[in-house]
Specification:
4-stranded antiparallel sheet, 1 helix
Length: 70
């Protein structure tokens, strides 16, 4: 295991998490926990810049809010 890099999963805040997938961690999935030991994936995308694009985060938070309001 390479301890010089961050873990593959990181908190984005307000209950939303990001999972990095792939050899160079280029694919991302935004997800959150739900009651009953469920994980709900609200957005998957390919990250092409150093920082996660704000539009991707906005969409993920919007979808999480929509899901939780049901």
């Amino acid at each position: 295991m390479d301890f010089s890099r961050p873990p593959l999963c990181d908190s984005l805040g307000d209950g939303l998490f990001e999972l990095r997938v792939g050899r160079k961690d280029i694919a991302r999935a935004a997800w959150f926990f739900r009651a009953g030991q469920r994980i709900v994936v609200v957005r998957c995308f390919v990250k092409k810049t150093q920082k996660t694009p704000p539009a991707e985060l906005t969409l993920a938070y919007k979808r999480m809010a929509e899901y939780l309001s049901r």
